[in-house]
């Protein structure tokens, strides 16, 4: 069907995936409405670490998506003054082992290139990413900055409301229906509902998306200038023994230090605002912080204690593409622990798919929801 007006696209979900999709669609000339149930970046997209890696997904399904995204993050940061507006910066990344029962041995630090603020009982520091291959953003600021640009420059309209269902007529999308009855006419719809995809009947009847809950804290050290830009990935042995924990630590240019870890598979609550951290998991993260560095102990102020859900699929691969049998209805979800990294290439290739009919930035075949056809859930 020929369109004589700009293609009207409704993007459902105001996380990083929905916002990146809305931005690139609007940049390509579509008339975009973004619908968010609660507030923009209220869930994982506002509470993630924001770590980016060029080549950590090499050899797997995500390789080309991740590489394209890493490069798009760099060019977006140039366009949007990323360091100032959302804390984009390249950094060095280390893997380390830490054992609570050991005492720090200061001589090990200087020789092994360990940052001086990491003064806990750490061992075996190894560089696993350089400023050429790893970087970071503040995920909430990134998502909000990109949306502001999309609103101001490309006229994206933002509606706060809950999408109840997609209107379909003759096998083709024609609208989105919100709770309360409002109907928004559309030529295409993109469902970017993160872990809430599993609660949306149209998607849930086709494939499973479930949530893995992960905890995080944000600290404000007393001397932020002492903290260098190093991302840290730990194997952390507690005094109680057992399997090591795997917390991650990301200092931010804002002067804050973000720590995450402690995951469990839990039911995703309907309301994103109801997602709160389990107190025991938060306590463990605080203990990790104190053990890693004296700068992250008693004198550091705790600015946030929180949790959020990784949107996860049964095969561990995101679902990006047109829904079989419903022309004009697209889905983008299941980005697990790499949604902040993979937001830009997901959004840019989805915009191509919706507007041009095929994606060139990344081959989306591997991500198509068509892979679930014939394996329908009962
Ligand atoms: C602790 C933690 C750390 C992480 N660290 C990193 C990292 O360092 N690097 C990285 O690349 N990734 C990281 N991730 C992963 C990343 O955060 C996610 O993959 C990404 O945020 C998912 O984005 P999304 O837009 O799909 O989902 P979400 O951010 O969950 O957004 C979905 C949105 O849809 C809205 N919504 C739901 N239902 C409806 C409805 N019916 N109508 C309207 N709106 C609706 C919700 O309110 C929500 O705002 C981390 C995740 C966690 C949990």
What key attributes describe this structure?
D-Amino Acid Oxidase, Chain A, domain 2; 30% strand; FAD/NAD(P)-binding domain; binds flavin-adenine dinucleotide; single chain; 2 domains; 378 residues; elongated
Structural account:
About 25% of the residues lie in helices and about 30% in strands. By secondary structure, the protein is of the alpha/beta class. It has 2 domains: about 10-80 and about 135-210 and about 315-370, FAD/NAD(P)-binding domain; about 90-130 and about 210-315, D-Amino Acid Oxidase, Chain A, domain 2 (2-Layer Sandwich). It has a 7-stranded mixed sheet with strand order 6-5-14-15-16-13-17, with helices on one face. A 6-stranded mixed sheet has the order 8-2-1-12-19-18, covered by helices on one side. A hairpin with a 6-residue loop joins β18 (about 320) and β19 (about 330-335). α1 runs parallel beside α6, α1 (about 15-25) runs parallel beside α9 and α3 packs across α9. The two termini are about 35 Å apart. The model has no long low-confidence stretch (mean pLDDT about 95). The structure holds flavin-adenine dinucleotide (FAD). Flavin-adenine dinucleotide binds next to α1, β2, α2, β13 and β17. GO terms for molecular function: oxidoreductase activity. InterPro entries: FAD-dep_OxRdtase, FAD/NAD-bd_sf. One of its GO terms (cellular component) is cytoplasm.
